[in-house]
Amino acid sequence: MIRNLDWKLNFAVLFLVAIGLVSLLGARIDLFWKQLIWLVLGIFLAALIINFDWRSFINNKWVIWGIYWLSIFFLILTLILAPKVRGAKSWIPIGPFHFQTSVFAALALIIILANFFKKEHKSIARVSKILKSFVYFSLPAGLVALQPDMGSILLLFFIWFGFVLVSGISWRHLSIAVIIFAVLGVAMWYGVLKNYQKERILGLFFPNRDVLGINYNVIQSKIAIGSAGFLGKGFKQGTQVQLGFLPEAQTDFIFAAVIEEWGLITGFLLIAAFIAAVFRIVFIGMDEKNNFNRFVCLGAAIYFLANFIFNTGSNIGLLPVIGVPFPFLSYGGSHILAEFVLIGMVQSIRIRRV
Fold first, then answer.
1. What percent of the chain stands above pLDDT 90?
2. Global pTM?
3. Rounded Cα gap, residues 5 and 352, in angstroms
4. Cα-to-chain-centroid distance, residue 247
5. Which residues contact 69 (CB under 8 A, 6 or more apart)?
6. Angle between the 291-315 and 216-226 helix axes, to the nearest 10 degrees?
7. What pLDDT does residue 211 have?
8. pLDDT at residue 208, rounded to an integer
9. Mean pLDDT calculated for residue range 267-291
10. In whole angstroms, what is the distance from residue 190 CA to residue 1 CA?
11. pLDDT confidence of residue 122
């Protein structure tokens, strides 16, 4: 069974994990040990999923719907029990750790949409089918909006939109959808988005606006990357990270933190390893005859790609900062567990295809 694993995918993931641990070791030793615990738990979960033939279990519609509604229950529980941190109720404390329930909702959305599109992808041209799939997204997204957590909402949206794209939607319907979302975006700007969220978006187009406020994080990130050079400043020698100028250097801006100390060459290697991992996941999915398994793999690729684009885009100032992690690299238990669950599912599909 071990021989049949996709080791190119494993090596790419392990490279990202190793660089993340080295970065945490040089920045905060307490976070290094916590991350190590989460990684051990994540690998254990992945191993369980790989060794357990979950396909007949997960193909049961009652199980699929149970997972989906359980994620909705956790989101409601978060709104009731979670303490407010930085203006949002997104994390349920469990002892010394905190669990982000919106991450579980993202996994549940991948599973429910994979189940939906395995049957309906041939009739996705019907507006009713697109709207039905949108309902699956809108329910957890609406609860996450009450927290509020704009980053998780965008992640859920791109999972849904990615499924619609890969299912074979027509260009005509896609054009109509883009127009509708553009109108909704304008409506959200005037009726939904809070002032600080608007400021983040404006800061993207006006990088010199409020340099000590809304644009401070991105400016410090650019300084960290721009001052790194090809080989970086060395282990624990990054001034932006070690002196605390770069906020969230272990989570939102770990990509910039790694580049400052290990150079642009390591940044390129990180991107290459990530692209290799996503490519392997897509390849495994496209080589699969079962539509559910195929959509699970494509959903996993969409999940990883959305996180990567938002994280690196915000680090270099091309996208607003919305607080999403770099997969397998950023500190955080919830996303690490979710990522290894997805890797376990993909590898399980891979070994049982052989």
1. 33
2. 0.89
3. 10
4. 20
5. none
6. 90
7. 62
8. 64
9. 91
10. 55
11. 62
Q: Please, is 120 exposed, middle or buried when counting C-beta atoms within 10 Å of its C-beta (0-12, 13-18, 19+)?
A: middle
Residues 211, 239 contacting (CB under 8 angstroms): no
Give ∠ CA 272-241-237 in degrees, rounded to 5. Answer: 85
What's the pLDDT score for residue 304? 96
143-147 contacts, C-beta under 8 A, 24 or more apart: 143/72, 143/75, 143/76, 143/79, 143/105, 144/75, 144/102, 144/105, 145/192, 146/79, 147/78, 147/79, 147/82, 147/88, 147/89, 147/90, 147/102
**CB-CB neighbours of 196 under 10 Å:** 11
Statement: residue 152 has pLDDT above 70? yes
User: What count of other Cβ atoms lies within 10 Å of the Cβ of residue 133?
Assistant: 21
Closest Cα to residue 261, out of 276, 239, 293?
239
Query: CA 331, CA 24: separation in Å to the nearest integer?
Result: 8
Q: Does position 79 have pLDDT exceeding 90, yes or no?
A: no
**1 pLDDT more than 70:** no
pLDDT in tens, 324-335: 899 999 988 889
Nearest to 307, CA basis, from 261, 269, 281, 274: 274
- The answer for residues whose C-beta is within 8 angstroms of residue 295's C-beta and 6 or more apart is 113, 114, 117, 118, 163, 166, 285
